[in-house]
From TrEMBL:
Residues 13-23 have a biased composition (Polar residues). The lineage of its organism: Eukaryota, Fungi, Fungi incertae sedis, Mucoromycota, Mortierellomycotina. This is Calcium-transporting ATPase. Residues 51-128 form the Cation-transporting P-type ATPase N-terminal domain. GO terms for molecular function: ATP binding; ATP hydrolysis activity; metal ion binding; P-type calcium transporter activity. It comes from the Eukaryota. It comes from Dissophora globulifera. SUPFAM superfamilies: Calcium ATPase, transduction domain A (SSF81653), Calcium ATPase, transmembrane domain M (SSF81665), HAD-like (SSF56784), Metal cation-transporting ATPase, ATP-binding domain N (SSF81660).
Length: 1055
């Protein structure tokens, strides 16, 4: 159909080849024809396409029956193997997004080998192999010498292959882990009309042409047009940015888009787009096109690795030039004739191989891999702790979080609401058992009105849960009220069956009330209709002009009565109960006709009473809040509850302390930007908040340099979740939109799981730093040792051969990354403040260990090279050393070097000044296993490596001696930890603290709270003595006025 070329759709079309180009179909429409029906920018109306009946006919669907479950292609009637909806799926697509193609193992091998130094080393090894084979089998070869010259070149190639395949296997395992994480999606059921009956089917099986039933709370997974509506209201903020709820009808505002949520009402829709052709699908496919970004830590490490590689390249070039010059100078000054051309070429190849090997060792390619391994391991383990990580960088970012803005209901509390107290008809009850006594005391006719109001003015209902047990489905507050009357022997379904509801005004988050109008059965009321209203107690009470007393009489509300109700509400709120007021009024037929459909007539109400609903704190919340405080992370509660209930729950959880600020969303919004910035430093509770308030709080905190984590479950929480440094969505109660906007999904909706993600985040950062400390030590030692030993030796050979250096490279890159990046977090990570955003990767303690250990290891190895023959008695009586003794000494130095790294890896398990490097070692089985593999591999190389590794077998005493030399890393580590900071000048290594301090410390908050409480009491007594009602404050002092108004302390310096 023709479209307006001047108007561009909100998202580009993604027809995914859905146009039926392979031949004619029985459908009158294509994906492209139906797409304009649900374009949010300017949707085409059904009447523009010939009317809804023509669309039904064009999609081959009966509006009264829906699709037939056994539908198949008309050209294949009678074929039992014909797939259901085959042609429909071929033309319009399925409600499944295409899977992302993952890299094959061969592609990962190619990627791992795509490294210039490894390629150079391979080329040099091939050249060396060719030269050696020529020498072994050429005409100048001595028949008495074994033909083993090819071993070195082959060994280098084998070592390169080992490095490449190890990296590829690690990448392959990581990809598999992330595929498993991404595959963990909700497989939910939706209600459709098929074969003339309501049916529940998997959301993936929904087809274009299906008639989907719509109910409050439904998250729509497809696009469509409304064909039946009973006050349907949808939240489409995720797609359009329109925060207001949108009413839907079957005429002008009939389009609905995937990703939106049904807030109120019920009805049915005709599905017009599924999968990648739906609005949500197009959004998801567009997000797939963007390449995955590196995490901030990976970017930092890449820059560091590049700098180290440049230094390594400089050292390799210097070594190459020095050895080449030395080679020709030595032979020029020697009395022996110059070697042959082939011999010079062979020696040059060996020198080049040594230089390239220096580059391989110097380039810390293991750094990015360490981050990847740490993140892959952490995200897998976090899933076991009910944290599904969707954005990889969130894992490391959470480790440095400084504040958590948490929802209350379902996150801090259990979301298992029950009515525990109430005052109905001015008759109180303070427990579930007392409620039965209340029923016996209250007038039956009043009890009937209360029960009817609870049952009829509600959208919750009873159904079987996944375990087959009966449970209430819908709003937790309404479920608590239905549970209350069920406990008293009433059946909500019988009440609904006997009374006709004629108007419904669904719950509005703006008005905080829900209302309905019902027809009163004959003889049960003075008028034909009755209005029931329930909602936030203080709001409903303002609309009440009368109340029911304990005798069942209706009386006018005077100031004393209103004050009494307010006292009841306040007493319940102080006990952390959610207060709900119940009210009604009888309505005449003439008055009923004047009622509007979109505005509830909540006036002149009769107050039936107030109930207190308890939502207990989740187990472990108090301990988690305490642990967050100990870790330097401030917890702030942002909730829609009233201020008193929010305060009480926050106090019980340990969130609100003396000196903290508790205020409502409207009050916070009304402040100037400067006042908001000042208030947010001490803000601990924000009640009656909207999604806009949450976004403002996040923005103000980030402007102050905070790393903010935010929880959210609703579609309208999306902006705040996106804006936060780490967004947590709810896995159980959260909408798909909230999950898509978040970085981490809390699978159990539990606040304590956020603490576990903080621990894992800090563990990831610590793991990378441990590996960095270890690798830089090995880098410096290996490069310097190889350079000095090669330059000072007679044969221009490094004390560590090329193959030995490749083994060392494997130890310090892949295996060390595996060992140090997979350590689970310990409770100790919560005993320190968060790390500042600007903190360097390598702190003072790390530099102290890196430089100290490197200097020690270089010194001990050079000492062994110089005096080892005497120390280990590897020389004859005349001081001469045979070739075997030289090889034995080099083997012992190689063995000592490796064991220095093995023991230093234990040192690197601690990056602070703690002495107990063995703490929790038994919990890190991967570390123990890797160390065992390294020691086992070293034993095989030394005892059986032979010519390939240029080693000879060592005796038991020689093994013991080299292991003891390697173990010296441990006492050196203790000495370095004891070394005071003032021994090392600030100009050499920065001593600056890397910890991020809270905006206002807990101690300062408590001190300010206590001092202002004393000042307030003093002002009060001064006012009494002077006969004044209030104490005048300077209106230009915003901090004083804020404290005066909201009971918080904002005096003094806020740093």
């Amino acid at each position: 159909m023709p479209q307006d070329s001047a108007r561009e759709p909100l998202l580009p079309s993604s027809h995914n080849g859905a146009r039926n180009t392979s031949g004619r179909s029985r459908f009158a429409f294509t994906v492209a024809d139906l797409a304009p029906l649900t374009d949010p920018t300017a949707p085409k109306l059904p009447r523009d396409m010939g009317g809804i009946d023509r669309i039904f006919k064009g999609l081959d669907v009966d509006p009264k029956v829906g699709l037939h479950s056994d539908e198949s292609d008309s050209h294949s009637l009678g074929r039992s193997d014909q797939a259901k909806f085959e042609e429909r799926s071929r033309v319009f697509g399925r409600n499944i997004l295409p899977t992302v193609k993952s890299a094959t193992f061969f592609e990962l091998v190619k990627k791992a080998y795509d490294d210039r130094t490894l390629i150079l080393l391979s080329i040099a090894a091939v050249v060396s192999l060719g030269v050696s084979i020529y020498e072994d089998y050429g005409p100048h070869h001595d028949p008495d010498e074994p033909r083993v010259g090819w071993v070195e070149g082959a060994a280098i190639l084998a070592a390169v292959a080992a490095v490449v395949f190890t990296n590829a296997i690690n990448d392959y395992q990581k990809e598999r882990q992330f595929r498993k994480l991404n595959a963990k999606k909700d497989d939910r059921q939706v209600k459709l009309m098929r074969d003339g009956h309501e049916k529940e089917v998997n959301v993936k099986e929904v087809q274009v042409g299906d008639i989907m039933l719509m109910e409050p709370g439904d998250l729509l997974a497809v696009d469509g047009i409304v064909i039946k509506s009973h006050n349907i209201t949808c939240d489409e903020s995720s797609a359009t940015g329109e925060s207001d709820a949108l009413k839907k009808d079957t005429e002008e505002k009939c389009y609905v888009i995937s990703g939106s949520k049904v807030l109120d009402g019920s009805g049915a829709m005709l599905v017009t787009a599924v999968g990648p052709n739906s609005f949500f699908g197009k959004t998801m496919m567009a997000m797939r096109d963007s390449a995955p970004e590196e995490t901030p830590l990976q970017v930092k490490l890449d820059l560091l690795a590049e700098s180290i590689a440049k230094l390594g390249m400089a050292a390799a070039i210097a070594m190459l030039v020095t050895l080449v010059v030395k080679y020709f100078v030595q032979h020029a000054m020697s009395s022996n004739p110059m070697p042959s051309g082939s011999q010079i070429f062979s020696d040059m190849v060996r020198i080049v191989i040594q230089a390239i090997t220096i580059v391989v060792v110097a380039v810390p390619e293991g750094l990015p891999m360490a981050v990847t391994l740490a993140l892959a391991y952490a995200t897998t383990q976090m899933l076991k702790d009910n944290n599904l990580v969707r954005v990889l960088s969130a894992c490391e970012t959470m480790g440095n979080a400084t504040t958590v803005c948490s929802d209350k209901t379902g996150t801090l509390t259990q979301n298992k609401m029950t009515v525990v107290e109430g005052t109905l008809s001015l008759l109180p009850f303070n427990s579930v058992d007392n409620a039965k006594n209340w029923k016996a005391e209250v007038k039956p006719e009043i009890a009937r009105i209360i029960f009817d109001g609870i049952a009829l003015n509600s959208s919750a209902f009873e159904d079987k849960d996944e375990k087959g047990n009966l449970a209430f489905v819908g709003s937790k507050t309404e479920s608590a009220l239905l549970g209350f009357i069920k406990l008293l022997g009433e059946s909500y379904s019988n009440i609904r069956g006997n009374v006709k509801v004629v108007k419904v005004y669904p719950f509005s988050s703006a008005k905080k009330t829900m209302s309905c109008v019902v027809e009163v059965p004959e003889g049960q009321g003075p008028e034909k209709y009755r209005l029931f209203v329930k909602g936030a107690s203080e709001i409903v009470l303002r609309s009440c002009t009368h109340y029911v007393d304990d005798e069942g009489h209706i009386k006018s509300v005077d100031d004393n009565t209103r004050a009494k109700f307010e006292q009841i509400i306040s007493s319940y709120a102080d006990k952390a109960l959610r207060t709900i007021a119940l009210s009604y009024r009888d309505v005449s037929s003439s008055e009923f006709k004047k009622f509007k459909d979109d505005e509830a007539p909540n006036s002149k109400l009769v107050c039936l009473g107030v109930v207190g609903i308890q939502d207990p704190l989740r187990p472990g919340v108090v301990e988690s809040v305490r642990d967050f405080a100990r870790a330097g992370v401030t917890v702030r509660m942002i909730t829609g509850d009233n201020i008193q209930t929010a305060r009480a729950i926050a106090k019980n959880a340990g969130i609100l302390i003396k000196g903290g600020l508790a205020m409502t969303g409207p009050e916070f919004r009304a402040l100037s930007k400067e006042e908001q910035t000042e208030a947010v430093k001490r803000l601990q509770v924000l009640a009656r908040s909207s999604p806009t308030d949450k976004t403002i709080v996040v923005r103000r905190l980030q402007e102050l340099g905070e790393v903010v984590a935010v929880t959210g479950d609703g579609t309208n929480d999306g902006p705040a979740l996106k804006m936060a440094d780490v967004g947590f969505s709810m896995g159980i109660t959260g909408t798909e939109v909230a999950k898509e906007a978040s970085a981490i999904v809390l699978m159990d909706d539990n606040f304590s799981s956020i603490l576990k993600s903080l621990m894992w985040g800090r563990a990831v950062n610590d793991s990378v730093r441990k590996f960095l400390q270890f690798q830089l030590t090995v880098n410096i030692t290996a490069v310097v040792l190889s350079f000095i030993s090669a330059v000072t030796s007679d044969d221009n050979q490094s004390v560590l051969s090329a193959v030995q250096l490749l083994w060392v490279n494997l130890i310090m890159d892949t295996l060390a990354a595996l060992a140090l990046a997979t350590e689970p977090p310990s409770p100790e990570v919560l005993k320190r403040q968060p790390t500042s955003r600007t903190a360097p990767l390598i702190n003072f303690n790390m530099w102290k260990m890196i430089l100290g250990q490197a200097i020690f290891q270089i010194s001990i190895n050079l000492a062994l090279l110089k005096f080892g023959a005497q120390l280990f008695r590897l020389q004859g009586p005349d001081g001469s050393i045979s070739d075997l003794q030289k090889t034995t000494l080099r083997t012992m130095i190689f063995n000592s070097f490796v064991f220095l790294q093995v023991f230093n890896e234990l040192n690197c398990r601690r990056i602070d000044d703690s002495f107990n490097i063995f703490k929790n070692l038994q919990n890190n089985k991967v570390f123990v296993l890797v160390q065992a593999i390294v020691i086992g591999g070293q034993f095989v190389i030394v005892q059986f490596g032979g010519r390939a590794f240029k080693t000879v077998p060592l005796t038991g005493n020689q093994w013991l001696a080299t292991i003891l030399i390697g173990s010296l890393s441990l006492p050196v580590g203790v000495i370095l930890r004891l070394l005071p900071s003032y021994f090392i000048p600030e100009s050499v290594i920065s001593h600056a603290s890397e910890e991020r301090q809270p905006l206002v410390s807990t101690g300062k908050l408590r001190w300010e709270g206590a001092s202002n409480q004393i000042m307030s009491q003093s002002n009060f007594f001064d006012a009494i003595r002077k006969g004044k009602k209030t104490h005048k404050h300077d209106e230009n002092a915003p901090t004083v006025s804020l404290w005066k108004k909201y009971g918080a302390t904002l005096h003094g310096d806020s740093n």
